[in-house]
Amino acid sequence: MASRAPVATGRLMLGFRKWYYNLCGFNKLGLMRDDTIYEDEDVKEAIRRLPEDQYNDRTFRTKRALDLSMKQQILPKEMWTKYEEDVPYLTPYVDEVIRERKEKEEWMKK
Fold this sequence. Notes:
Layout: H1 5-24, H2 41-49, H3 52-71, H4 91-109
Helix pairs in contact: 2-4
C-alpha cells in the first residue's frame, strides 16, 4: 500500500500543476511560462543570447499576446499553449548568466 502512495501523489500533483497552469491564463494568449519572466538585467542578457529562431518565436508570441490583450480576446482553445508543450527555453540561459555574474562578483572581491 505504501508503495502506491507516491504514484498517486505524483498523478495528483501533475493534475494540480496542469490545473494551475491553465488557471494562470498566459497560455490562453499563446505565451509560454518563460515568456512571463520579469525582465531584469540578467534576463535581458539571457534574451540577448537566445538563438535567432527562439528570439523570433518569443517576439511573435509577445506581440500576439499584446494584440489579443488590447482586443480583450483569447486564442481559440486548440491554439492555447499546452502544459506538455511548454518547455523552459530561456531558463537555462538565465541560470548561465546568473552563474557568470556571481563568478565575476567573486572574482572582483579578490
